[in-house]
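Name: EpsG family protein
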Amino acid sequence: MFPMAFIVVFRGDVGVDTATYIQLIQYIQDTPGYTNIFEPFFELLIYVFSIMGLNAREIVSLLSVITIIILLYSSYKIEKRLVIFSSCIVPMFFFDMTMNGIRYGLSFSIILLGLSFLIRNRSALFWMCILLSSLIQFSGALLGLLVYFLYTKRIRVFIYSLLLLIPLLFVFSGYLINKVEAYQGAYVSSGLSGVSTLLITLLVLFTWCTNKDMRYGNLFVLLTIFSLTLLSYVLAQYTYAGLRVQNIVAYTLFLMIMVNFKQLSHTDYKIIFLLFFIGLISFAFKMKNFYDGEGIGLSPFVPYHFYWDI
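Structure predicted for EpsG family protein:
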C-alpha cells in the first residue's frame, strides 16, 4: 500500500476532479461563511485546515491521507478483511476515492469504519459514522442505510431510517438542487457506459454464490444487490447519476462480501483466486479509463506527475 499511497499524496494536478477541488477550496478560503458548495462538515474541514495554514493543494493531499488511514484501519478491524480489501476495493475504488472523488472517498471510507463498529454491535458509533459521512457527501447516507439494511435485514428499521433522511433533505436542499441541475446537463458518453462496473459486480456476485458457506442465509442480500445492479446499469444509460449509483451498489457489495467472508468454515483458495482475478480485471478497466482520458481536462490521470514537477 505504501507505493500507492506515495503516488496519491505526492501527485501534482492528477485526477480528473483534483484541479476543480483545488479551485473550489481556494474559493472557500477566500469567502467568509458557508458557501453551500460542499456539504457542511467537508467545508468545516477545509476551514480548520486553512486555519492551520495549509493551502488548497496541501488540503487536498491531507484529505487523501485521512481517507487512506481510515480505509486501512477499518479493514484491519474486520476479520479476514484484507482479501476483499486488496482484491475488490483497492483495484476498483482506491485511486478514484483518493485522487478524483475526494469527497465521496472520505465519505465512503467512514461508512467502512462504521461497518467495523456495526459487526461488533456498537450501533451508536455506526450511526454516528453515517451522520458524519452524510455531512461530507450526502450519498454516504444512502450507502450507510443500504449497508445497514442488508446487514441486519430489518426492513422496518430501514423504512424508519429513510424517513429520518427527510430533515437532511431540507438541510442540503440548496446543495442537492445544484447537483440535480448539474446532472441534468450531464449525459452518458455511450451505450457502453457502466458496462465495466456491471461486469465486475456480477462476477463478484457469482463468486459469492459459488461458496455454500457464504451463500447460506444470504439469498435475500444476493437478490437485492443483483436487482440494484441491473437497475443502476439501466439508469446509467440515461444519466451520469446512474454511474454514481452503480458505484454505491458495487461498494455495498464489496462491504457485504467482506462481512460474510468470515463465514467460511475453512480457507477457500478458489474464492481467493477468483477474487484476485476479478481484481486484476477491475484494475485493467480502471487503467483503461485513465488512459482514455489522457491529456483531457485540467488534471487528467495521464500523464502522471509529482507536485514538484508543476
